[in-house]
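For reproducibility, we list the full input for the D-mannonic acid complex.
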Amino acid sequence: MRLSQDTLGAVSGEVDAFDYDRSASLEIVHFGIGAFHRAHQAQFTDGCNRSGARPWTITGVSLRSATVAKQLNPQDGLYTLTIRSRDGNDTQVIGSVTQVLVAGHDQAAIVGRIASPNCHLVSFTVTEKGYCRAPDGTLDHALAADGFYPILCAALAQRKKAGMPGLSLLSCDNLSGNGQQLGRLMREWIDAKAPDLREWFDQNCTTPDSMVDRIVPAPSPADLDELEKRTGLRDEGAIFTEAFSQWVIEDDFAGPRPAWHEHGAQVVADVAPFETAKLRMLNGAHSLLAYTGLDRGHTYVHEAIADGQLRALVKRLMLKEAAPTINSGEGQDLTAYADQLVTRFENPALYHRLDQIAMDGSQKIGQRWLEVLAAHRISGTCCEAILTGISHWLHHVSGRVRPVEDPLAEQLRAICEGAGAAEAVAGIFDPSGPVPSAWSPSTAEREFIVEKWRALQ
Ligand code: CS2
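The corresponding predicted structure, in tokenized form, follows.
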């Protein structure tokens, strides 16, 4: 029996199911309704709804694939979230998502939802590549035409025309200054396509920065089968995650929002210290574990962190390379943070695949690694852990060892194949090269990377 509003009563007693009325809700439209959003913002919103406040519901939008729509629409948007730890499983049914629309088929409906008076917020987990940035960081208009930009722009134009209030546009992606970047890129789109909207946008819409943190492995078919046995209902949209969850949001909203701050989120004046620490320490370590771990024959994060050599490299990256570049905020203890991250990586119940993290590296390493290298340029510190990571990443994108999922896969493979190692390193990290970066290697750094890379071949 499939999970849905009608079958909810049949779910096993050990599952904590939502019990609020989802009608008469205020609305959020969310672009990129993947596992990450469902384990994070949707759960925070569900927590607010459970407390009896007027509910907020979420219309999810998938930009390309209809997979999530097929999983969740027959289930009335409902899905289970299972927290996995050494102590076992803890499952709840999340009620905040009501529907999933797919940009290709439902464009008019999506525009209508965002332009409706009930909608106050549009949020995003479209991944790094979803922002359609050119290597120099500006908007790539050709890519953006297939992304969320035209849809959002059309909806905002309708709101302006109808004299309605603006919206808060909330990025929840792993980019530095994610809200600022979203605001800048959206303005580039508006200036090019709807310049009359610009002043209204500036005066009525906001783009708060936010840092989101929760590790969410992609579920496997065996996970879904085990869940069905345990709960008595089939859930095609199930999510499995860790107990830890953190959300730090800049206090810059254009209108109402759920009381996320009463349900675990921190609403602060400046997100930067949290965001920088998370990107450079957690995500930086993740990418390092992914490329080095795969090369050393590991499949999962908990296996890679148990490998003494990689553990030492990760600790070096976090404490000696990333931490000194972070201007920590009040009460932020980066040494304790590093210890907590290692413990999270060790979670043996999560089965977080390294190849999931290895995806889209060209879009990730800028904010995870290269900003750290650029910050050390002045001190002259040699960042051996990150440079080792880069050599394994080059080994990965050379395309000779395993399939590469990356929007620049072809371009990177061609550079690696066509040139000698030193030329490839220089070409990829050249300021006008394919990887957006404020860093290009010194001679010593290039030699370090090349030597390690050659040793892998
Ligand atoms: C990971 C992130 O796949 C990746 O690149 O580093 O998804 C990571 O698990 C999250 O940012 C944790 O909050």
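Residues 174, 213-215, 282-283, 286, 356-357, 364 surround D-mannonic acid (CB under 6 Å). Residues 369 and 386 are 6 Å apart (CA to CA). Both points were considered when choosing residues for closer inspection.
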